Amino acid sequence: YRGDVPLRGQLLFELGERLRGLSNFARANALFDESEPLLRQSANVPTLARLLCLRARDAVFDGAAPRAHALLAEAETLLAASDRPVVRPIRAACRLEAAAVARILGDMPRAVAAAEEARQLELAGGLGHTESHAETLNALGRAYFQAGRYRDAADTTRGTVESVPLAIWDRIMAVNLRAPLVLIQAALPHL
After folding, report:
1. How is residue 149 annotated by DSSP?
2. How does pLDDT run across 62-81, given as a tens digit for each residue?
């Protein structure tokens, strides 16, 4: 894989993402640093955009809000230029990172708007039944909660036991049961 620039960039990014998920941020960032020029060289737009969005959240935690906004803007520009089907979930993930950045900065209207946009992108892409969509709903619930929009953090879709599709049921459970748990967990340290 060393001579295969696109594959090497993709592998380094994916390893970095896994390490980031394990809270090994220093090693993840080292892999991201190595993968970014390779992703740019190979024009791997979806992965490069995802990397930029992940780095935006890191930048805002480091107190570099202008850099975070610049990274998100670059990612959006890259994604807007591509109409490949693989881009929709990446765009949704980037909007979710934008919501997190806005929430960290205290810009609740922007956080809610970005999380709502992520939700719409996932629904439009047929991703409404995935685990990532449940995470999107949780992020939307957190944004609603922090914005003081408590009534909006629920799904009131109706149906009968005989007719409700499982995807709708799963979404209702994710929003109405899981999201309140996440909100309660987030609120407890402040009580």
Report:
1. -
2. 889 999 999 999 999 998 88
